[in-house]
Amino acid sequence: TPAIYWIRKDLRLTDNRALLAACEDERPVIPVFIREDDSAGALGRAQAWWLERSLARLSETYEQRGARLILKSGDPADVIFALIEETGAQSVFWNRRYTPDGIETDTALKKKLKDADLQVESFAGHILHEPSKFKTKSGGPYKVYTPFWKAFSAEASVPDPLDAPEKLKAAKKMPESEKLSDWGLYPGKPDWAADFDALWEPGETGARDRLERFIDEIAEHYASSRDRPDIEATSMLSPHLALGEISPATIWHRINRAKNLSSENRKKFLQELVWRDFCHHLLFHAPALATKNWNDRFDGFEWADDDKALAAWRKGETGYPIVDAGMRQLWREGTMHNRVRMIAASFLIKDLMIDWRSGEEWFRDTLVDADPASNPANWQWVAGSGADASPFFRIFNPVLQGEKFDPKGDYVRRYVPELDAMPAKHIHAPFDAPKEVLEEAGVTLGKTYPKPLVDHKAARKRALAAFEKVKG
Ligand code: FAD
User: Fold this and answer.
1) Which residues of 269-291 are buried (b: 16+ CB within 10 A; e: fewer)?
2) What region holds the Photolyase/cryptochrome alpha/beta domain (predicted)?
3) CATH 3.40.50.620 location in the chain
């Protein structure tokens, strides 16, 4: 009898334990992706764009190997029991997910399947180690990254990635699939296609190519350049990881095997990759990570209720070029350089004093790598409300950050064309530039480029005063 393999954020055939278990001993397999109607399956618009393409590729890959991807909508338990009834399948496999909603759905379904005397098994693979694996000496979760990394590296064993099954067997009675085009996952608005298509190749092949290119051309200056948004210096693997088109174990072992990497670059990269595990560790132990301050002292923080400022931040019209470049990169390309994410997030939270949850929500909707663990964990990290947080009083100065990490202003020019002719010396603070410089560059503040929304120095003072009240 056939087995059902329930696909979630694991849109790959390589290193996929659930798929391998399903097709063991040439058992016919029914790979099914379910468009869940509740929050467990909810995705932002940018990731919906990605998912649509990734599912199309995955469907082709299954066809090539002799199986067929089945698409269904609805409550997973209803869908799976209907498939069992229709096909006579006796077993169900999936790879684990770690969001609170996901865990709840999966646990309930597992019980239901077991109660019905069906075989059900789940597997690890979305992160390097299970989120509950590492415990502090006192038995609790890690709240600080460095000791987590130490515990992680002491473990040393990341399971070897497994090959994709060469051939798959379709079930004799294959169920009907819904049509991807009928789903309208990404309705075509906003019109992202041009810029997204030029930059991204969703799917397993795209993920593997990205990794190889990173190793061949970029990784050898990773440690020294990863903070520079003007240089191509990071892997851009995050959206592929977010939807599981490549497993972190595949990346881990491939990076360890790459001969051209210095130990410094290798270690730095692996440390970043393990941040992803750390974020999942935090989410696992604090399921309300996206909605609740980890540190409840922040519950009394007096956030500003300023829709106009929030809208300007989203559009990249704050008058601070590095922030605006980041926010426009996000809108155009569905991503933003990590350093600039920190600067833009700090600006929203501290200069505008807008609740970090508004920023988290916007990122969730517009990032192709939006991740239910990494996004809130990093937002709380910047806010200072998180477990391992940068302290609230560490407030990025957007001008100095720009000058340090985008020294020639190339990153700003790429995304804020109205500042194209500004000289490097003034590009990060056009509001302080002499009149002649602005004139020569064709910049009229308030007309061709916005005046700053706030004065950073004053805003900083305001934020620190608000922080004093909750500091305790
Ligand atoms: P690389 O530098 O090549 O790093 C390799 C991999 O390590 C990344 O693909 C990613 O999986 C992981 N990684 C690196 N840094 C982090 C980090 N700080 N936290 C967790 N994992 C990390 N990352 C997401 O994947 N999804 C998000 O929704 C997300 N939201 C963020 C929100 C804010 C406010 C901030 C400051 C950071 C956020 N990050 C998020 C982390 C980081 O910015 C991205 O992972 C990184 O920019 C992706 O680019 P890359 O793949 O080229 O990274």
Assistant:
1) bbbebbbbbbbbbbbbbbbebbe
2) 1-128
3) 3-125
Is any ligand 1 atom within 6 A of the Cβ of residue 276? yes
- pLDDT average, residue stretch 103-107: 96
pLDDT for position 385: 86
Nearest alpha-carbon partner for 57 in 123, 13, 101: 13
237 known ligand binder: yes
CATH second-level architecture of 3-125?
3-Layer(aba) Sandwich (3.40)
270-319 tens-digit pLDDT: 999 999 999 999 999 999 999 999 888 899 999 999 999 999 999 999 99
| ipTM tops the 0.85 cut | yes
Q: Tell me whether residue 235 is annotated as binding.
A: yes
Cβ of 363 below 6 Å from ligand 1: yes
- pTM for this predicted structure: 0.97
CATH 1.10.3210.10 is held by the domain 296-471: no
Helix (H) or strand (E) holding 209: helix 204-213
Q: Out of 379, 381, 397, 418, pick the active-site residue.
A: 379
Annotated active-site residue 356? The verdict is yes
If you measure from the C-alpha of residue 359 to the centroid of ligand 1, how many angstroms do you get, rounded to a whole number?
Answer: 16
Distance 326 CA to ligand 1 centre (A): 14
